[in-house]
Amino acid sequence: QVQIVESGGGLVQAGGSLRLSCAASGSTFGFDAMGWYRQGPGNQRQLVADISRGGSTNYAGSVKGRFTISRDNAKNTVFLQMNSLKPEDTAVYYCNARVSFPTTRAYWGQGTQVTVSS
∠ at Cα 24 (18, 30), nearest 5°? Predict the structure, then answer.
């Protein structure tokens, strides 16, 4: 069974940094695109950043230049380095991992809370 395990969330002051990790397991042939989404109170879940198996990245405009997504295919792990954090970055961050075998589907992590204080 596919499992998604997230870590690294916490409380940080504005201007600080935080690094999120997402370890995926249970896929015979690894994972395709992996990414991070976030959902603040009363808001819909939105894309923060994602990365393809080959390393192509995509970022939300609000985090471009501050966040960096990367992955280690050998460990099926994706990271999100968050710098220059702002209070508006406060949200629950969810890891998303997609597979193509045996079927095409996406899996979600449990979510990890990131809180940025003023």
Answer: 130
